[in-house]
Amino acid sequence: MLDTPAEKHFDAVCRTAQALFSVPIAVIALMDENRHWFKARSGTEINELPRDVAFCNHTISSDDVLVIEDTLVDARFLENALVTGTTCHRFYAGAPLVLYPGIRVGTLCLMDTRPRSFSLEQVRSLQDLADVVVAHLRLHEARNQISQDLEKMGSVQAKLREAADYQRLIEQVGGIGCWRYDLRAQKATWSPSMRRLTGYGLEDEEVSKDDILQFLHANNRSDLLDWARVSGESTSPTPIVPFDRQRHLVRADGEVRTVISRGLPQHDESGAIVALIGVCVDITDLVRSEEQLRDVSDLLRLTLENIDQGILMIGADDRIRVHNQKARDLLGVSENLLHEGARFDVLRQHQVDTGEFDKADADLRRWLKSDSRETEASVYERERPNGTAIEVRSVPLPTGGFVRTFTDITERKKRETALRVAEAEYQSLFQNAVVGVYRAKLDGTIVRANQALASLHGYADPASALVSDGCFNHDWYVDRNRHRGFMRTILEQGRIDDFVSEVTSQTTGERIWLSETAWLVRDAEGHPLYFEGTAADATARKRAEAQVEHMALHDALTGLPNRRQFQERLSQELATAQRHGSHFAVLCCDLDRFKTVNDTFGHPAGDTLLCTLADRMRRSLRRGDTIARLGGDEFAIILRGRSNPHGVNAAAQRLIEIVGQPLDIGGHITTVGISIGVAIGPDDGDQADTLFKNADIALYRAKDAGRQTCCFYEAGMDMAVTSRNFLEIDMKDAIRSGGFLLNYQPVIHLRNDTLRGFEALLRWPHPEKGFISPADFIPLAEDTGLIVELGAWALYEACREAASWQGDLRVGVNVSAVQFQHANVEQQVRNALFNSGLAPERLELEITESVLIKDADAVIACLHRLRNMGVRLAIDDFGTGYSSLSYLCRFPFDKIKIDRSFIQEACPSTSGAIVRAVAGLGKQLGATVTAEGVETQAQLDWVRNEGCCEVQGFIFGKPLSRHSTREVTKYRSRMMGAGAPKIGIHASIKPKSHN
Hints:
8-stranded mixed β-barrel, rod-shaped, alpha+beta, about 1000 residues
């Protein structure tokens, strides 16, 4: 009421009191703790007074009217400002306004400036007016209360509307539906959200029980049926209690939604349950999220248990929140110590007590043993007592605590150690490699090099090379184009192998050859970064290649062009001749008697002879001519611009002359000859091979003509070569088919003119050509190697035949030098003797001096073994070759056979001296001396007089067939059995007439 506007009815009361009591001032005053405020007044303009000054302050202290007839006589007011002031109020009468018992809110008071009396009747009247004021005050309060109530009601209604809107919003957002189920009516009332939840568009506000049943999942209908039964029963108390259950609703579209249904029973005035009210909250998404969360949690746990790292999460309370089995395994602790909720400080203290951190360095060990909290991320490695190396990573959490992972790095540490060892080994290999190794920028600047590369370029060490202000550059080639070619290849192909170039030393300027292999290094995007490579000193290799190239085209012994270079030059010369219409001559040359010299004096002497003759022939040719050694004692010559037979023949004769000049071979004077075949190109062949073949055919004709001569190719000459080839084929067939036979030439002992034995002579009766001369087929057999098989057959056949002879007659069998070189003669002899049954002392092997020349020590050792078997050995054709008395001293032959050329020599004086000397030598050595080729009586008498022991020759007839030989041996046996003192020459074999 304080400070409210004036009101008429209160002003009217003041005027009524003023008139009724005839006072100048009437006031309705309201009071609070400090103020004395006039709600209505009459006779004064004052609105309020301080409470401590106002007379009314005394009035409201009780429920009675206060009357002060004269303020000057009342000691309470003597000092009051209202009394002592200008107004000088002398009279006061006031009635308290008691709004409710004990509640006094103000006064209705009367005041006058004069003293006056106030009767009890007046007091009652004043009280009645005060009651009227109180009634107005109460009416005012009632109106205010009604206004406030209306205002509160509007506020509540607004809040209810807001709550309803909020409820609808919550229902929509939270999937909450409200419902009420009337148990008597068996119907439910659903909120719009409840209807949306089911997905059914129901027109009626109420939903029947049957409709509700179709919304509920079959497993959730029992509750509703129980409620229906309860509602039909009159007995009490009812069993329905508040509930909170999870149910499944089947929406109209068939989707099953999960809800939480919460309900309370509703009672009427009598306490009976009339309905159930509640809500349905759609928790389908929550359930699915929980399922997903469980799946994620299971997956997280499965992941934690299967990762290679141990993991701990420690909360802000220093307790373990998350861990896995790997952490327990890596830390070596049990589940009692490490489990969810375990105190981390207890675990750490256990590790300290068990020496878990003893192998860590001092600073780390102190930190690990301390109770320091993790304030920032950290990573460290330590070794456990069992030797396991682990890496520990810690990350503090924003909410306090930290996450720590443990990784077993034992194998990684081993690999790192192995890598360091490998790196050290690589560095050792890199620095100690015998080849240069480098890395270079794309501009060629060398940025890394080893000692070998530095040394190649004259630097003391790699450091000196790399600090040379960029002077150490890959562009080190003598030919500047090589560097461009190198870079182009490596950029295009990414690699280059065996890039051989002549380079200049970076410091000395010396030229050397390098072989480089390099490769391009790219970044992750494939862009070139730099290139690396190796560089090996190829100087020696280049020299060797040059030497090999020279050797590939030149004969190693004589330095002459070899067969390959000769063929190239021949092809070039032939092409030039064909292009210009010119001619040239091709000479195929073969040394005569070279093999004899080689076998007699050895290979070193033969090599010296070849070099000497090569030099002689080279100096005899003109500039532009070509001489080549094709192999062995074969040479070939190209005479450029020569087509006239006389000129070519003159050149050939000059070659024959200079080759035939005597040679001094280790103090021995010897001579050889040369046979030459000539073909004129391109007349005798338009192909190089044909031309050379025809010259070779001409060479064969020259050899057949008696050697040391020159023969030009003529058409038809190749038939001779063809005949020789056919002869070789026929010989192979004859060996396979048994087409050879042996004849036997008697050997006569001159002391008593008796038959001593036979020499087996090989014969070839050709089915078409008749008998082939041994002079024709024996050399061919030796050249082709067929003599090995043929000689083995002859040895066995001779032994088999001799075994059938009566008596102790010997058989002599010739053994070729080729057989000693390519066959096991000793084993062949053993087999022949064993299979034939011939006594070893009846076999006499005849060898020429050439057998002893090559590998003399091995041959002599073999001859000694044959001698120890009992086999006799004879040296055949003695004196025709390069006879060396040293062989006779090193091996005492049983027989020395003098060649027929000395017996038939026209000059008896010279031949006689030779025969006499050989006979004397044989006598001194204890060897039998046999003269071959005795054909006349004079020759027989002569060799007898010269001291020969045995003879053989046509004087006793031609060599005998196998049958005739057997007849002779039988006759000899009969004569000896008849007691004849001796069987002379003419008695056993008729000598050939000398006429």
